[in-house]
């Protein structure tokens, strides 16, 4: 029997139990299903798991590329969406559910992001990756201007949930350029902006970044360029003069470019001082900090770098003389140099002063040399920048490895209240000017932040909306063991599961009467739960020490043990046959030691009204053997338990290891017969066959032995007395070596 109250849960409508469980979370519901069989039916019902599925699940599934696998239950559908994300919107986005909270999770593919120069094959390459959930991923070849942006409507996400955005990527073993200057991430929703300084590849990962899946890159990547290729593709860097020489890929178009170029006065006026003789822009020396801080915002939210092509709104233009294709989704073409109004002249000049000078004739960019040309003020600023950079490095975030083999970097978090705040914007940017290579981007994932889910849960707080009395009433209809399991389900459940309202129901209704009979009543308990476990662990002596009382831990059923003094033992008062002694490991002051008898008869009685109702009980003889305990192995003893018209009979053998003992006895009989010593008649085949069903004793945790005498079902406690007996009066042989503590009556497990 698992619990006395365990079946009471069936008296509640399943809808009631389901309503309580559905107020928790998927994790808590799974824990509830392990509480008991009674709760499992409600915890696994469609009524519970339908609430954990998003209300717009049918709309989401209708956008899926592939149909979902068939599932017969809502729980099966939920777990399928947790384990196997589905591709929606033509494969540009994936959808999944967070197993812990049931919150909606989306991943934007790299194709759905705005990647500056993402369509320029000399900077980015689109490849397929077998362990990616999307058909294409973006492989970074080489850029000095890294800018990745993504957007998602907040109405697509779960309401009243804390989310975080994560950049999902891998690191190529030949990566470089990411540890010189930390990258910046920004996540914004409405007025909330979350900004972090991150490092996608720490120093110890550059050149030889540890990656379990690096073999997958070897098939799709080119070797790092040698010196000639590097000079041709990236341009040569002159360390003495501190400038980059940019490649001139289109010499044939140089004449056209010269015709389209502005004159010297216009160029100097627009972009700063231009030297027509040497055909380069002088390098600024006083604003190194602007490069490290990703540029200050320009008027109209736009900065222009020296480039004939315009970047998108809200973006800073990368320094490049080549025509960059317009980034997708989020960009609008800005006016070109000829169409630029004079209102932008100051902004353009400021951009040139911060980005450095570009030589259109020799096709190079001259970078500032702070070491040789910086003023005293700039040297002081440089010292301050170094201190600031050292402090910033301490707060730099680093990526973590995912179970699917990819890396993820948290970009920022936000709280989605009602989904009415518009778009969530996510940005990764690093435009310090040095070249970077060696990453593969799968996309940006937006999912509930698990740290918050563990603390609060998306739906976990809903349980608090129910009155605690309601939850307590449901739990009290189970059993003590189930209640303890419920306390481990969630914090909300624990308060109700540990309440006095629950544990008072597990205590016997006549407990005050029982305690009034105690020799030493319990004291010092603060709650009903404490009292319950006190009565489970420490039996109470009642009625002057002739009986003990305790509770069965798993069910709360009442247990009684009748002491040997309260039993009827034939010849028990004759010192020649029985002796009364005390033992330290007995709960009673006296136990009965059998000296020698040939007529063994022990009887006990207890009123059925003292026991728990609607419970199956068993009676156990509690004893020890000493010396010649094998004297009980010659012939089985008989036990009987009766309540009303119900009678339970068993053949038992009090001798320990009775099977081995009976074998040794048989050998000893043969030896005595061989020596001519008379013995008792040999057990016939029929009787020997009957001994195969003889019950043997079991060892208890307290060091005593127990023999089950029989069982009975106590319905309402109106059937009078329970009678129990142990007898062996037909064998005629003498028995000795038994120490009797009493007879215990307890619920049968």
Description of the structure:
- This protein is of the alpha+beta class and about 750 residues long.
- The protein folds into five domains: about 1-85; about 90-225 and about 390-455, Jelly Rolls (Sandwich); about 245-370, no CATH class; about 505-535, no CATH class; about 565-745, Sandwich (Jelly Rolls).
- The chain is about 25% helix and about 25% strand.
- The chain contains 23 helices and 32 strands.
- Strands 1, 2, 3, 5, 6, 8, 15, 16 and 18 form a nine-stranded antiparallel β-sheet that branches. Strands 19, 20, 21, 23, 24, 26, 29, 30 and 32 form a nine-stranded antiparallel β-sheet that branches.
- Strand 29 and strand 30 (about 705-715) form a beta hairpin.
- Helix 2 (about 25-35) runs antiparallel to helix 3 (about 35-45) and helix 17 runs antiparallel to helix 18.
- The longest helix has 19 residues, at about 375-395.
- It starts with 13 loop residues before the first helix and ends with a strand.
């Amino acid at each position: 029997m698992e619990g006395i109250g365990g079946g009471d849960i069936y008296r509640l409508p399943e809808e009631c139990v389901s309503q309580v469980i559905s107020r928790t979370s998927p994790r808590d519901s799974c824990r509830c299903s392990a509480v008991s069989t009674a709760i499992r039916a409600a915890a696994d019902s469609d009524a519970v798991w339908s609430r954990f599925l998003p209300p717009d699940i049918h709309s989401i599934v209708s956008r899926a590329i592939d149909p979902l696998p068939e599932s017969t239950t809502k729980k099966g559908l939920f777990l399928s969406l947790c384990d196997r994300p589905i591709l929606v919107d033509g494969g540009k986005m994936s959808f999944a559910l967070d197993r812990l909270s049931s919150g909606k999770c989306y991943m934007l593919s790299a194709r759905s992001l705005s990647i500056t120069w993402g369509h320029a094959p000399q900077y980015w390459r689109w490849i397929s990756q077998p362990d990616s959930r999307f058909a294409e991923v973006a492989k970074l070849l080489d850029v000095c201007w890294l800018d990745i942006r993504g957007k998602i409507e907040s109405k697509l996400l779960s309401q009243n949930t804390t989310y975080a955005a994560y950049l999902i990527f891998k690191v190529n073993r030949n990566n470089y350029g990411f540890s010189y200057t930390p990258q910046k991430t920004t996540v914004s929703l409405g007025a909330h902006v979350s900004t972090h300084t991150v490092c996608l590849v720490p120093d110890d990962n550059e050149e030889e970044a540890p990656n379990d899946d690096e073999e997958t890159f070897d098939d799709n990547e080119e070797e790092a360029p040698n010196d000639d290729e590097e000079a041709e593709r990236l341009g040569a860097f002159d360390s003495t003069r501190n400038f980059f020489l940019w490649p001139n890929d289109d010499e044939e178009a140089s004449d056209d470019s010269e015709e389209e170029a502005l004159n010297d006065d216009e160029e100097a006026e627009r972009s700063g001082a231009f030297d027509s003789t040497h055909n380069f822009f002088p390098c600024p020396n006083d604003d190194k900090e602007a490069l490290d801080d990703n540029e200050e915002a320009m008027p109209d939210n736009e900065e222009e770098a020296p480039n004939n092509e315009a970047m998108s709104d809200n973006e800073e233009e990368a320094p490049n003389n080549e025509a960059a294709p317009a980034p997708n989704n989020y960009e609008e073409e800005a006016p070109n140099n000829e169409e630029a109004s004079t209102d932008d002249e100051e902004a353009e000049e400021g951009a040139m002063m911060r980005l450095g000078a570009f030589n259109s004739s020799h096709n190079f960019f001259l970078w500032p040399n702070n070491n040789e040309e910086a003023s005293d003020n700039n040297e002081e600023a440089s010292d301050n920048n170094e201190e600031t950079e050292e402090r910033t490095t301490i707060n730099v975030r680093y990526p973590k490895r995912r179970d699917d083999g990819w890396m993820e970097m948290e970009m920022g978090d936000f709280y989605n209240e009602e989904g009415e705040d518009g778009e969530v914007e996510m940005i990764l940017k690093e435009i310090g000017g040095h070249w970077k290579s060696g990453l593969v981007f799968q996309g940006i994932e937006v999912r509930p932040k698990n740290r918050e889910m563990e603390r609060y849960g998306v739906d976990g707080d809903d349980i608090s909306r129910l009155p605690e009395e309601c939850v307590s009433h449901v739990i009290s209809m189970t059993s003590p063991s189930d209640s303890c399991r419920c306390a481990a389900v969630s914090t909300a459940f624990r308060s109700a599961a540990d309440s006095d309202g629950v544990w008072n129901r597990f205590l016997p209704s006549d407990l005050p009467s029982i305690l009034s009979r105690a020799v030493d009543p319990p004291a010092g308990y603060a709650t009903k739960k404490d009292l319950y476990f006190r009565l489970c662990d420490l039996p109470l002596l009642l009625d002057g020490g002739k009986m003990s009382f305790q509770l069965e831990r798993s069910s709360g059923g009442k247990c009684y043990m009748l002491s040997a003094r309260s039993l009827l033992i034939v010849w028990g008062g004759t010192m020649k046959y029985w002796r009364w002694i005390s033992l330290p490991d007995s709960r009673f002051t006296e136990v009965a030691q059998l000296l020698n008898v040939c007529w063994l008869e022990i009887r006990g009685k207890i009123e059925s009204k003292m026991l728990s109702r609607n419970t199956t009980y068993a009676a156990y003889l509690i004893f020890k053997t000493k010396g010649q305990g094998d004297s009980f192995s010659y012939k089985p003893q008989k036990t009987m338990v009766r309540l009303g018209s119900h009678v339970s009979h068993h053949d038992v053998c009090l001798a320990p290891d009775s099977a081995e003992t009976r074998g040794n006895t048989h050998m000893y009989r043969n030896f005595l017969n061989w020596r001519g010593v008379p013995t008792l008649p040999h057990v016939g085949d029929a009787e020997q066959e009957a001994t195969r069903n003889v019950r043997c004793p079991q060892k208890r945790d307290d060091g005593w032995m127990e023999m089950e005498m029989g069982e009975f079902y106590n319905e309402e406690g109106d059937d009078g007395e329970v009678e129990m007996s142990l007898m062996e009066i037909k064998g005629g042989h003498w028995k000795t070596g038994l120490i009797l503590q009493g007879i215990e009556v307890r619920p049968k497990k």
